[in-house]
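Hello again, I could really use a second opinion on something today. I owe you a coffee for this, so here goes:
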Amino acid sequence: METLVLLVFGILVLPGPSFTNSDNLELLAGTLRTRQRAACDDEIVSLACPIGTYISIQVAKYGNMPEGHGCVAGAQLPVNTVLEEGKECLRPNTMQYSLLQTVVEACQKKPQCEFSTKTKPGIVDPCPQAGKFVEVAYKCRPRKYALNIQDYI
């Protein structure tokens, strides 16, 4: 018990590597923030983290385009194709998983990356006439922790 008290005291009081460095505080604060990107059909999305950090994907999903999105829906659609009024297009789990897999393969544990929002071949979109809207949430994790407990033991 006494060793633990001395260890905690040493970490908090003694000089050495600590979280008091403003660069470390800024880096750590940035790792708490969730960053988000959204894109339309068939776009390239870029994700990036500050130097010394890497991408940690939290969420990647397809959804319906919200109003005022600025996307041009249905550029490749046949003329007179209209989505039924009030119909909600839910993307199946296979489609959602495919997107997540694409994003993780391209970005996970990298400082920056790019990926296409285009659906992989073989994946069937139940509502091809409705534009897809891709949303990705990620965090920037530090490559090294500023505090190494082994330095104090």
User: Anything to note?
Assistant: The helical segments are 2-13, 22-32, 93-107. The domain at 2-67+89-147 is CATH 2.60.120.740 (Jelly Rolls). The longest helix spans residues 93-107. Residues 15 and 152 are 11 Å apart (CA to CA).
